[in-house]
Design brief:
This protein is of the alpha/beta class and 339 residues long. The chain folds into 2 domains: 7-144 and 269-312, 3-Layer(aba) Sandwich (Rossmann fold), CATH 3.40.50; 146-265, Phosphofructokinase domain (Rossmann fold), CATH 3.40.50. The protein is built from 11 helices and 11 strands. The strands form 2 sheets. The chain has a 7-stranded mixed β-sheet, with helices on both faces. Helix 6 (181-189) crosses helix 11. The radius of gyration is 22 Å and the shape is elongated.
């Protein structure tokens, strides 16, 4: 491939897909044209980089793309990319293609891969946070998290209708891996009655005691009413089946579990994710023009930030205290037994 542009920029999407990844790819391609750079897309994440599976991206390729979910470059998890051999092969492929800078859109695992690559390749490496979990420190939000919350809230609203009709307890499990961001915000936005997140989970017994007290108080005050619990995945030992059995045994009420699963990854990105993706993608190309490397492009207080990739693994992103306090007040306002 002859190199005619000022720079050649490559982009790939890695790990779990997130709504807004396509919007970010679009912004990168258009910003590259603005700065007279050529843009190359690697398919299937780091696998495509190792297999030299790529295509040149032009404006026409990203036309009418901003509203589409998923990623046109496809994504994958690449365990073998951890090896030194893979790092050297990736560097060789990038040099062979004449790539000056590589942008990785993904989560923490993808960023570990980016940092790994930087030990073997001298080009610029830039990360953009794309994950529904919003578990990346150094940025207020990650691409896809707003759409995932919207999907969860829409599903919980529908569950509420049938829960009210039968006055049942419903358990709704949402994604988040080790982060309670989706669960907490979906519970707040849907006016759910209880939320279980890894950051605040103490023990099975403590959680059961709290839910039992809340259910009893509300039924004493209002009679038989529904009760919605939002549960972050991987928190409850034994998962939703174990929690369902424990609650039914404790309350003698019909309990129904609902796992939303991968539906939260799909769908057209909401405007917040389109805006975030567009801003981060365009700023990444600006950073490349300025010679920046080894950073993640994020947003804090509506301003772009550049966070060293190396520092990301050393930090854990906490839940927002404001949201935690709000949930506590709104849930316990009708339960005088709580402080």
């Amino acid at each position: 491939m002859s190199k005619k542009s000022d720079k050649r920029v490559a982009v790939l999407t890695s790990g779990g897909d997130a709504p807004g990844m396509n919007a970010c790819i679009r912004a990168i391609v258009i910003a590259c044209e603005y700065y007279h750079y050529e843009c190359v897309g690697y398919r299937h994440g780091y696998h495509g980089l190792l297999q030299q599976n790529h295509k040149v991206l032009h404006n026409a390729d990203v036309h009418n793309l901003i509203q589409r979910g998923g990623t046109v470059l496809q994504s994958a998890r690449c365990v073998e990319f951890k090896s030194a051999e893979s790092g050297r092969l990736a560097a060789q492929n990038l040099d062979q293609l004449g790539v000056d800078a590589l942008i990785i859109i993904g989560g923490d695992g993808s960023f570990r891969g980016a940092e790994h690559l930087s030990h073997y390749w001298q080009g610029q490496v830039i990360g953009i946070p794309g994950t529904i979990d919003n578990d990346i420190s150094g940025t207020d939000a990650t691409i896809g998290c707003y759409t995932a919350i919207e999907t969860a809230v829409s599903s919980i609203d529908k569950v509420r209708d049938t829960a009210d009709a039968f006055e049942r307890i419903f358990l709704v499990e949402v994604m988040g891996r080790h982060s309670g961001f989706i669960a907490l915000n979906a519970a707040l936005a849907s006016a759910s009655d209880h939320v279980i997140v890894p950051e605040l989970f103490v023990s099975e017994q403590a959680s059961l005691d709290t839910m039992f007290a809340e259910i009893n108080h509300r039924r004493d005050a209002h009679g038989s009413v529904s009760y919605i619990v939002v549960v972050a995945e991987n928190v409850w030992p034994g998962g939703l089946p174990a929690l369902t059995s424990a609650l039914e045994a404790r309350t003698s009420i019909d309990v129904r579990p609902v796992t939303l699963g991968h539906v939260q990854r799909g769908g057209s990105p909401v405007p917040q994710d389109r805006l975030l993706a567009s801003k981060l993608g365009a700023h990444a190309i600006k950073a490349i023009k300025e010679g920046v490397s080894g950073v993640m492009i994020g947003e804090v207080n509506h301003q772009p930030v550049e966070v060293p990739l190396q520092a990301l693994g050393e930090q854990h992103k906490p839940l927002q205290v404001f949201s935690v306090d709000t949930m506590h007040v709104l849930v316990n306002a009708t339960n005088p037994s709580q402080p």
